[in-house]
Prior knowledge:
Layout: E1 28-33, E2 38-44, E3 50-57, E4 66-70, E5 73-79, E6 92-98, E7 109-113, E8 118-121, E9 127-134, E10 141-148, E11 167-168, E12 173-182, E13 188-197, E14 200-212, E15 218-221, E16 226-227, E17 243-247, E18 250-259, E19 262-270, E20 277-280, E21 293-297, E22 303-307, E23 312-318, E24 325-326, E25 332-334, E26 339-342, E27 348-353, E28 358-365, E29 370-380, E30 385-391
Antiparallel strand pairs: 1-2, 1-30, 2-3, 4-5, 5-6, 6-7, 8-9, 9-10, 11-12, 12-13, 13-14, 14-15, 14-16, 17-18, 18-19, 19-20, 21-22, 22-23, 23-24, 23-25, 26-27, 27-28, 28-29
Amino acid sequence: MRTSVAFLFVTIFLFSSFPVTAAAGQQYVYVGNAGNTSISEFAVNSDGNLKTLGRVISPICGTPTYLSTAGRVLLAAGNYTPTCNSGELGGALIYLYPILSSGTLGAVSQAFENDVGDAVLDKTGRLAFTSAASFNPHAFQVSINGWNVSKNNLKTPLPGSPYAFFFNSQTGDGYLPYALQVATKDDYLYGVFSGYSGYNETQAGLLGVMTLLPDGGVGTFVAKPAVGCKGSGVTGVSGPLLVLANLKSGTATYQPCLSGTKNVVGVSIINSSTGIVTKTYNAFEPPSGMSVAPIAVDPSGRWLVASNGKGKIDILAINQANGSLTEPPRHIFSVGASSVAFNHTNKFLYAAQTSKNRVAVYAFNPETGSITLPALGTQLSGPSPTVVVVAQP
């Protein structure tokens, strides 16, 4: 049986070095549609609006619940649909598409995994990682899988993959991995874990940092996973998520926490040279009182977007010195989406509008952290779009 909460929406893991530099070249937007397991393809025009390129259907009914893009690849993963999963307790598929020069997606490569908690790429699009955390007796797996995807396929598992050193399947002691993220310098793999003893959960929301070996394989924890959200478990509106922002003095991590019945944001600071957690703040609760979970950081690393899971986003300011958060006045926007992504020039924000079957584009001001309503334009995607990413191959 799955121990993780089914995600209602997905985090978009976007982060880059500070400061942001002007991006050049064609950009593309990809939208995962839960309603028919398809991925919609769009080209970005100079004014930020979208041109429809086409749509691909995910293989073997794998839902595109998670999308990650870097370099010339798009990594997707998600649970099997009920139609393809009748009578089973779980199951998920990981699949990868090369991004062609036209922006359309090439021939798919796929791999089976019995459960998926997250799927991420490194910044170059060379390494791919997925987390699996399941006590499904038909396909028990508590691990992190990794691939070298430099050849645009999932045929080259990384040495030692899958990695399960963090959990003893005989005693039920250790850590279950959920959210993942790769450090900007590709030195570490960050993860959100739950601690277990004798198969009983002892602590949720643990922040673990693992070394990445020269061959791309996962090493060991640099230190025992720390409490990422003081006194809180990670059960937020969309399950455990993780986004990063680069500071001048380290890396800030943001994850959902539970404060009473409210979803708030946990903030930790990591030494980017050692991977050690140096500071954990009390969970941040916006003064507006809106229940939020972090989903994206803008390319400048100055703004964090958090979603209430009901179509509203709260754009929070990131303190560049210490990573702490503040909520500027009038920074809550109704975009009709729980998943958003910034383009690489930091001028536009794209929103997957689930109930409207559309993807919308909004003008973004990186100086003020505000978006302009209404949308600059929208395009039909597919049924029930739930996740959006922006690529610049």
